[in-house]
């Protein structure tokens, strides 16, 4: 297998009528990562959710990668990322649907492998493998500041993970997270240049009545700055201390009612039977030797 190439080693399609397909891919040194081909019905086209790394160092408690045998291996190279998109794009073409965007929202933190992600993104769009590139991130201070520098490359769209109204609450899910009150002004500055969706995973510990009030107070000054507040149902993974919220409906209703000037949407996972959570399929089905780490990746 040539260096910097990848191969598909497992696929799991979702049940009908969903058209999504989850892939596990392997690099030439046996590092593994995931990608998901998703049908975007309202657009009549496909998207791809792509990993940025083979594993992840962030330790997020809602992610199966944190509890895998090899939670982090290495960064993926730009060539490997591009090769993975090529594999999935071939499948999309065979199903007669265009690939509209690649979203670096899978396993790994895109901001921690930014040089390779940006190089791959330019290649993906330049070679017309996809029309747009999106990036999902925990959006740490230093990385967001780099996006605000003159002539910095920016994806077409971004989604930043909030998950808590204060630092202690946010770190229950993202142990290395920054304080929401200090990152939100930076996120809002990026949102002046590109659409930025805020994502909030719904768990038992962050959907109490007092959390409704705290999140409303935190976000109220930013009305009109972000296109959507995306409230996401938690997809349980083995090993996670988190549990789905029993107050999900009440929490969503309260935020929808109280956040003036915001569009609040609810994202419900429909793929639990196909190991839909980030890193879940990789963690469940693979029993491979620990890959070697390449210098510089």
Task: Name a few traits of the molecule.
about 300 residues, alpha/beta, TIM Barrel, ten-stranded mixed β-sheet, two-stranded antiparallel sheet, 8 helices, about 30% helix, about 25% strand, disordered C terminus
Shape: globular
Based on secondary structure, the structural category is alpha/beta
Strand/helix succession: EEEEEEHEHEHEHHEHEHEH
C-alpha-based Rg, rounded: 18 Å
- Stated plainly, the CATH topology is called TIM Barrel
Can you describe this structure?
The chain has 297 residues and is an alpha/beta fold. The protein is globular. It has a single domain, classed as Alpha-Beta Barrel (TIM Barrel). The C terminus is likely disordered. 42% of the residues are buried. Helix 1 runs parallel beside helix 2, helix 3 runs parallel beside helix 5 and helix 6 runs parallel beside helix 7. The chain is built from eight helices and twelve strands. A hairpin with a 4-residue loop joins strand 2 and strand 3.
Describe the secondary-structure layout.
Blueprint: E1 6-13, E2 21-27, E3 32-40, E4 45-50, E5 53-55, E6 72-75, H1 78-94, E7 99-104, H2 114-126, E8 132-137, H3 141-147, E9 157-161, H4 167-171, H5 180-191, E10 196-202, H6 209-219, E11 229-233, H7 248-258, E12 264-267, H8 280-285
Parallel strand pairs: 4-7, 7-8, 8-9, 9-10, 10-11, 11-12
Antiparallel strand pairs: 1-2, 2-3, 3-4, 5-6
Helix pairs in contact: 1-2, 3-5, 6-7
GO biological process, one term: methylation
Domain Radical SAM core: 42-272
Keywords: 4Fe-4S, Iron, Iron-sulfur, Metal-binding, Methyltransferase, S-adenosyl-L-methionine, Transferase
């Amino acid at each position: 297998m040539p260096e910097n190439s990848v191969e598909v080693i497992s696929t799991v399609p979702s049940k009908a009528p969903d058209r999504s397909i989850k892939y596990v891919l392997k690099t030439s040194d046996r590092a593994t990562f995931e990608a998901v081909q998703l049908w975007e019905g309202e657009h009549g086209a496909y998207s791809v959710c792509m990993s940025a790394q083979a594993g992840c160092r962030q330790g997020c408690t809602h992610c199966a990668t944190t509890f895998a045998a090899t939670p982090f291996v290495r960064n993926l190279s730009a060539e490997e990322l591009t090769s993975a998109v090529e594999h999935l794009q071939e499948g999309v073409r065979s199903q007669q649907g265009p690939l509209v965007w690649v979203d670096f929202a899978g396993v790994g933190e895109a901001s921690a492998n930014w040089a390779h992600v940006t190089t791959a993104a330019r290649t993906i769009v330049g070679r017309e493998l996809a029309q747009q590139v999106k990036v999902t991130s925990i959006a740490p201070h230093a990385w967001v500041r780099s996006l605000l520098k003159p002539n910095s490359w920016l994806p077409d769209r971004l989604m930043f993970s909030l998950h808590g109204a204060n630092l202690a609450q946010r770190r229950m899910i993202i142990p290395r997270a920054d304080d929401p009150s200090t990152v939100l002004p930076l996120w809002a500055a990026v949102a002046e240049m590109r659409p930025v969706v805020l994502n909030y995973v719904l768990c038992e510990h962050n959907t109490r009545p007092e959390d409704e009030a705290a999140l409303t107070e935190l976000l109220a000054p930013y009305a009109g700055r972000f296109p959507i507040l995306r409230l996401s149902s938690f997809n349980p993974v083995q090993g996670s201390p988190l549990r789905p919220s029993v107050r999900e409906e009440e929490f969503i209703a309260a935020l929808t009612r109280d956040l003036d000037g915001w569009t609040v949407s609810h994202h419900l996972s429909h793929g639990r039977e196909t190991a839909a959570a980030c890193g879940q399929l990789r963690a469940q089905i693979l029993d491979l030797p620990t890959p070697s780490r390449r210098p510089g990746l």
